[in-house]
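so my prof wants the structure for this chain in the tokens format not the other one, which i didnt know existed until like an hour ago. anyway here's the sequence
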Amino acid sequence: MMASKVTVKRQREIVKNSPHVSVAFREGVILLDRNFVTMAMDCGAEAILDDLRNGHGGSNGDHRLPQQIRSVLEGRCGSEWDGTQLSFNVGGQGYSCHAFMVRPETDAAPLITLYLKRELSLLDAVQQIASEYHLTGREQEALMGIAMGLTSKEVAGQMKISPNTVKAFLRLIMIKMGAGSRAGLVAKLLDQNGLRCNSQVVTPFGGHR
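here's what i got, hopefully its the right format
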């Protein structure tokens, strides 16, 4: 229980300081040639690359392939790229990458397709739900506690309010989210897939390395 209390306390401080934080794009696709030159990417991949570069002191708009991905691909021959999977951590945030070979119907050379994913934490999911359903900071705290498996009494102790007030917060959240029970709230939270770009346009690049 002590670990849960620490986590809820930390979440409360984060929500209090930034109650309307949005979750960045957390998945995207990059197309590379066999020399690992970026040919095109969607807006989700571009956001993730910016995220990775910022974690290493880089700047936005840098579309070079991150070294932790490139080094794995360079260590394998072309026939081994297909199906390559790796996970890595930058600044405490987890990421995963799956590599696939795309073979055009024409005689053009195959392209390497990278599917990047920014792993969504429980806090990210709560903040995303809060943005979508306009939850207050205190409602976010209550939802976070319930999602972690705490009882109303335990959440009340962390929020320094009564269990009845916690239940009142949960009823308001259910109304906003259209859920009929606590289980329904948690199910909606777990079903979140991250913010999506309204226009999944693949943007070409001219020789960025």
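also thought this was worth mentioning. Residues 1-8, 14-24, 193-209 have pLDDT under 50 and may be disordered.
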